[in-house]
Fold these 3 entries.
Entry 1:
Amino acid sequence: MLVDQRRQQLLEVVRSRGFASLPELVEVLQVSESTIRRDLDHLEESGVAKRTHGGVFYAGPMPRLPDFDERDPAQWDKKKLIAQRAVKLIEDGDTLLLDGGSTTYEVARLLVGRPLQVVTNSLPVANLFAAHKNSDLVLLGGYVYPRTGVTLGPHANEMLARLNVRRTVLSVAGLNERGFFNSNLLLVETERAMMRAGEETIVVADSTKFGHQSLAHLAALKEVQHLVVDNEITPQWRDKLCAAGITLHVAEPDRSTAAAGSLTSHANLPTDGSAAQSSIPQSSATNPVGDR
């Protein structure tokens, strides 16, 4: 393997994992540790990697797509908290459908390295899993929407009609009493097909989306089983969602794992506070308008 090819492969491994140890890189690339160290020195000088004790962090750019670049950075912390809470709902070995919203992208980043079967219509999401041996990846075909790097249209929908997954994870542009909305008609058709392919649907949405609608109606509230949101959701919206039968998972800022785990509420939550049964595991840890 040529030096440039090896370094590109090394960079892809580090980028997909976020962090990689030296022994992991030696195993994946099948070269000596001294060779890995020299290549990491080159990547660090290039500004795409950062050496640290025991390994290396990815320090390169995030996906350069218009909808990722234009989203409000003020909401990004909320999205990351939501992602940390959402991954607690995913079991190792699950088969997942992931859309191309930026909150879903944050979820995907935290799932890299876990043993999962991942189906996605998002090129950025697929890129996270493509180099990782623990994940099986299926990328849906179709027309690629240039603003977000997602595949849409009849080819994607036909493929989805032949697939079955355990959980579908979606981002939305807005939600109100009528249900969930997104800003692209073709996208909504594909996301409806995603919902049909899954046993359960998990929507990840920050609290700024509540009370708003967008161009295309995706689904009624009652068609979604789980909603993960930040802790700025109002009590009124908590009540509306629980009345619609949605299991609500509230992501809190990191205080203590014990306190954070008690924040999951259910549509049928008894007055004594005990949780109703759900097929999604409940963890004690709590861990981008068109913006999804």
Note: The chain has a mean pLDDT of 83.
Entry 2:
Amino acid sequence: MKMPHYGFFFYVTKHLIMCFSLISFAITAHAVETTKLPLPVDGRLVVTGSVALSNLMTYWTQAFSERHSLITVTIADPGGTAGIEALVNGTADVALASAPISIKQKESFEARFGYTPHVIPVAMDAVAVYVNDSNPLTSITFQDLDAIFSSTYRCGESQPIQTWGTLGVKGNLAKQRIAVYGLTVDTGATSLFRETALCGGDFIKDFQALAGPEAVENALMSDSAGIGFSSSAMRSAGIHPLAVASHKDTLAVAPTTETIRSGQYPMSRTLGIAINRPMNQPISPALQAFIDFILSPEGQSVVTKAGYVPLP
């Protein structure tokens, strides 16, 4: 019986395999040669503005630097108004905004560039009212706050509230005079507190305007008769936030993640960053990388860790 001849079959197969191997190698080599990895982004960013956001921005910057070590971010926090001015003057790339940009600020920017600043929402928080933990008070109304902090009484009260006993506090604290604290007048928190809790009125002469949430925190921790307002992100042992009612006939609401995000808490606010984005022109790669990180899931997780409320 004649055996089949396999020599020719193996010869052809071997050469086909070699041919396909060479083609595959050539395609791979071409891909390696033509595919270029994106160059790392470098640059320098200057951020200024809101005192409330400067703490959050510090957390963002630390996390961002781990991803983009060639981009340097410098943070200053002189207040929201100064931040917009720096954006107009070109001395800052980002202005932190804890309150809506005023008409005057928009007009100043537009007069310089011919268009308005671009504002990007980045997080949420609220203006919260705090007292020392030795104070048993748990809630308060706008009318009460107006009578404590204001000299104009535009929210309905006709007399000042000067002692804790007037608010129903018992014991040794009842006869103590209320000491009032808050942030400086150039902050978004003070602007919002004044417009809502004081119905646009004026602060009393004894109001102590302090530079930053940490200063308010320290004052209240050491003063059992004190009351003050600051960012709801401030959570420290020794003080507690009060639930706030916009009117005596409404339910007082505590500043929690849920009530701030829903707007149920009466002094909730959206925090943002303002940038100079020329019309029909891209922003710098460094600034785009920073914004992309802030709005990413990782960036929004930093919001939660810092005590603020991530975007819905």
Note: The two ends are 83 Å apart (CA to CA).
Entry 3:
Amino acid sequence: MNRIFRTWFLAGLAGLMVVGQTEVRAATDSAPAPKPTRKKVIAGNPYLGAIVVDNATGKVLLEDKADAEGYPASVLKLMDLLIVLEKIEQKQLALQDPVIVSAKASHIGGSRVWLAEKETFSVDEMLYALMVQSANDVAVALAEKLAGSTEAFVELMNKRAQELGMTRTVFHSVHGLPPGAGQEHDVTTARDFALLSRELLRHKDALRYTSTRERPFRPNDKKHMVMMRNHDQLLGQVEGVDGLKTGYFTEAGYSIALTAERKGQRVIVIVLDSVDRKVWDAKAAELLAKGFLALPAQSSPSPSPAKTSGTAK
């Protein structure tokens, strides 16, 4: 009797174990696969922050969330341009100096001119590619030329930002691309980039690069020539616009540093992290128009006294 009971007990226990394993397997098989981590989009509608400044005085004409911290994307290449132009004016660099492309620069993705390792171009040609094509490979090549490494150049960028009073800005890259694993985002505000833009406009050559709408890179090499086209759609479309720079990647949205001159007066507009390109362009143009309307009226020169002829009696 005990033997029969023991046999039934063991058989029942085995059955329960099989059922339990089946239920566990079924639960595991039906569980949803983990979703990939989505990157946080910070772009706002119509933007994250914006500001309009009188270039002559630095006076803020209009602002809306100008201290909201966002990602500048390729607009940060304005700091690259500023540092290069300052080095040229300090006679530490010349426009015709050669820039030799490193292996690192040749492998940078995103917007580029497809630099090949050991190619050589002048600083001047590189600056056109930096501003017109927004070439990330060129940003790396120039940084290495000036500072020896991208890390050392980033230190120069942050030092200059602090000198300009850009207290909410921290750079981690020379190009503005989204960070890779273990890296951090470049961070800034509309107000800080207005300070940078105004400083850049003190340099006469800046607008020569930023106002160029189209230019060939490697014009004598038909096979590898790149026809560079400026990403700023307001150039040539809105009165007086001659710069400065646009930027985009998914999490950041669209940003622009815009400037225009009309009747001897210049306005700077920064639109940071807009969710939509059409909204970004429209808002930038709208803020530019409002900025010019908000400028103090220029005093008209006093009319010269009328000249009289003949002898007074």
Note: Residues 105 and 171 are 18 Å apart (CA to CA).
